[in-house]
Amino acid sequence: MSLIRSLMSETWTIERPGTLVRDSTGSYVPGPPVHIDVPSSGVISPYGVTVGSSLETHDASATVQTRRVFVAPLGTDVRPGDRVTRNGEVWEVTGRPVVFPLTSLARVEAAVEEVTG
After folding, report:
1. Residue 87 burial (C-beta neighbours within 10 Å; 0-12, 13-18, 19+)
2. Is residue 75 within a helix (H) or strand (E), and if so which, with residue range?
3. What integer best gives the mean pLDDT of the chain?
4. In whole angstroms, how large is the CA radius of gyration of the chain?
5. What does the alpha-carbon distance between residue 95 and residue 70 come to, in Å, rounded to a whole number?
6. Is residue 55 a contact partner of residue 62, using CB atoms and an 8 Å limit?
7. Domain 3-116: which topology?
8. Cα–Cα distance between 54 and 64 in angstroms, integer?
């Protein structure tokens, strides 16, 4: 079993804003969020290495930005701006997903970022 396949063993949830609806003032606002469970997925370090990318901000705060990759089965609908969550972890999709359809492990990958502090 490949390293990536073994890491794609969890169920993550994609959360995105719902369809636009009108509020009481007539303005369009996002409806209730949509939650999509994605089995056989995971958040992994980029390039299969054990360390990922982190950035600490030193402007009198304790902010840490961590970058990883969300991997999901081929056909998963993941979009920029979605949130990927599991057990209290929240990662935001920061770019356009990449589809790898012709590899031994066909999958969808999307860059994600977690900001803490």
Report:
1. exposed
2. none
3. 85
4. 16
5. 11
6. no
7. Thrombin, subunit H (2.40.10)
8. 7
